[in-house]
Amino acid sequence: MAQVAAGTTVGAGGVPGEGAQREVEGRSLAQVFWRRFRRDRFAIAGVTFIVLLILIAVFAGLFVTFLTHHPPDAQYLDIGTTSSGIPLGASSTFWFGHDQLGRDLFVRVLYGSRTSLLVAFVATGISVAIGIILGVVAGFYRGWVDVMISRAIDVMLSLPLLLLAIGLSAVCGASAKGCAIGPRPIQLHIQPGLPLVIGIIAFANWPYIARLIRGQVLSLREKEFVEAAYASGATNGRIMLREILPNIAMPIIVYSSLIIPGNILFEAALSYLGVGVQPTTPSWGAMISDATGLYQYAPWMMIYPGLFLFLTTLAFNLVGDGLRDALDPRTGR
Amino acid sequence: MIRYIIRRTLWIFLVLVIVTGLTFVIFYVLPVANPALLIAGRNPTPALVHQIEVNLGLNHPAWYQYLTYMKHLVLGDQYGWPGFGFSYTNLVSVKSQMYSRLSVTLSLTVGAAVLWLLMGIPIGIVSALRRRSWADRAGMLFALFGVSVPIFWLGLLMLYFFWFKLGIACSSGYAPIFNSPGNFGPYGLASWACHLAMPWAALAVGYAAFYARMVRGNLLETMNEDYIRTARAKGLPERRVVFKHGLRGALTPVVTMFGMDVAFLLGGAVITEVTFNLPGIGLLAYQGILNENLPIIQGTVLLAAFFIVFANLLVDIVYAYLDPRVRYT
Q: What span, in angstroms and rounded, lies between the C-alpha atoms of A111 and A50?
């Protein structure tokens, strides 16, 4: 697609009228996509929710300053818990009630959106980047490079990744120093907490993306426009970046949006199991974990964080489905 | 075909060796804490720590421990073949612990699998055949809920409402069918099923949603194929067109997915088992990881990996029978 557009601008350089007309056509593809996406009420609802959530995450501090006056880590043990340590429910100043340390659950749920959104975008971004690089290289060069990368993907897909992820975050989170990977001089120190969780999720996801992209590149590299680029003297790197990558951009975008909800749930599950983010970092999964022993007496401790988690994954699922349907007319609702 | 199976079997062994190596690196090379210190209790004397290290074989270098583990795995140890060693915390053989907990994970997985097939496939079929009807919309709304809801939250909500508030469901925990000599038969079966009902439902919802979406999408695509038009053209009743010709093409990918999903859960449905306090493989692995109980971790990770690679092979062979176009060399 991108190649066609670039070719016409070069070819139509002397005829401005024709060039302008082509440009309108090129834009109309995006317009078709946008029109189809905009008509999808579910997808628009998802986008709206995500935008609101991003605003909440960015301006969570303002809620504290102007609305609740309860910092996320402040403990109100005297007014928030009974003498036997059971947290108290919602009141006029604590809208979602208290947690086991008397903290304001409403404020913590707001701050928890930061963790989930960071994981949603950063972990997905990293795994997509790794997947693109390895997938394009494997599909483009074929031969022993492809064999090596494909075998690595096969091994990764045979691993019980959830267990290994729990293990990795458990051993690296066991002490504040974290853990070290690699031989002495070039050791990589992994600190426990959110960066480690993001790294683990990115590591667990790249094989799926790499496999998808490799398949696409294998067929694209045989196409005429790649041959034409060769003939005009383009280097391998240029062909991969300028010819092949734009042509797989759409499936990459759709696939990335479809794995985001899974990644959000992955972080929440790790935090729920107690091997995710470090304590005091607000995370919806960790809040539900805090509630496991108390949910009979303080159900709000799990209901509100879980509701936000559910609505967030739902919103990302709606957007992902909407993108997929808008780009692929065969899969209508 | 035979050569293909042999090659794939060799690949299984290679993957399992890589898995043990990787697990060893993660759990032996990375941690800063000494497992012997965890066992020794508070304020241990250096002599006691050293004695525990010798007992567990921790005084040897990492490569020696790894080779010893592999030797026991291949040739067997004092608990027979395959040798998984003994747990650091209670000094009981890992193999017997995994064996006793496999029945829990098996009960959970098989029950949930039956449930999600019974829910997912009919919803998918109806949604595809009655596209844009209210049934399709309701089915896809359920599917959307299923793929989005966090299983541990759903589990806690079910426990809160059905067990604590309404009192119509059994609590968390596991009740074996044959719990005591005089207590099997209908009563044992009932309490077993009662305790597993909510875990089954919670685990099945997500998978049922995925299967419903997948069956719907596949069937919509299959029903547009030329051979469906041919089947209709030669006058077959619509029921036969759908069930004999349409579903065959639409359900073949589901078989692959089903095999992999079941294998993955048999290796330990960690989140469900933790939420409902079911003493299965997943809970064993989870506790092993939290206690840095290396033999338990090695054993459970290896078992999980074995289920995955074995199911992979099985699924590929079955696929060749279901889809005549697939040939292996």
A: 15
State how beta strands A188-190 and A179-181 pair.
Answer: antiparallel
Alpha carbons B261 and A169: distance in angstroms, whole number? 24
Prediction ipTM score:
0.89
Interchain proximity A310–B150, CB inside 8 Å: yes
Whole-number Å distance between alpha carbons of B265 and B257: 12
Do B97 and B293 contact (CB within 8 A), yes or no?
Answer: no
Nearest Cβ partner for A317 among B148, B267, B290: B148
Token digits for A14?
A: 């002397």
> Could you give the CA distance from residue A166 to residue A272 in angstroms, rounded to a whole number?
11
Q: Which residues of B touch A285 (CB under 8 A)?
A: 150, 152
Residues 6+ apart with CB under 8 A from A112: A282, A283, A284, A287, A305, A308
Domain ranges of chain A: 41-331
Closest Cα of chain A to B28: distance in Å? 9
Residue A333 has pLDDT above 50, yes or no: no
Query: So what's the pLDDT on residue A31?
Result: 77
Please check whether residue B58 is in contact with residue B295, taking contact to mean a CB–CB distance below 8 angstroms.
Answer: no
What residue has token string 């997947």? A131
Which domains are assigned to chain B?
A: 2-75 (no CATH), 94-322 (1.10.3720.10)
Q: Which residues of B touch A265 (CB under 8 A)?
A: 150
Chain A residues 310-329 with a CB less than 8 Å from chain B: 310, 313-314, 317-318, 321
**Which residues of chain A are within 8 Å of residue B26 when distances are taken between CB atoms?**
164, 167-168, 171
Token pair for residue A113?
């959106």
**Where is pLDDT greater, at B188 or B310?**
B310
pLDDT per residue over B114-154, tens digit each? 999 999 999 999 999 998 899 999 999 999 999 999 999 99
**Nearest CA of chain B to the CA of A156: how many Å?**
9
Q: How far is it, in rounded angstroms, from Cα A285 to Cα B156?
A: 12
Please check the confidence at residue A283 and state whether its pLDDT lies above 90.
Answer: yes
Instruction: Write down the pLDDT at residue A180.
Output: 65
- CB distance B147–A261 less than 8 Å? yes
Query: Cα separations (Å) of B105 from A87, B186, B279?
Result: 35, 21, 8
Q: How many CA atoms lie within 13 A of A151 on its CB side?
A: 13
Report CB contact under 8 Å: A181, B152.
Answer: no
State the smallest CA–CA distance between residue A293 and chain B in angstroms.
Answer: 10
Which residues 241-300 of A have a C-beta within 8 angstroms of B? Answer: 261, 265, 268-269, 272-275, 285, 288, 291-292, 295-296, 299
Fold of A41-331: MetI-like fold (1.10.3720)
The amino acid present at B217, given as its one-letter code, is G
First to last CA, chain B: 6
- Which residues of chain B neighbour A272 with C-beta distances below 8 Å? 150, 152, 271
| Residues 6 or more apart in contact with residue B65 via CB below 8 angstroms | B24, B28, B57, B58
Query: What gap in Å lies between CA B60 and CA B38, rounded to an integer?
Result: 18
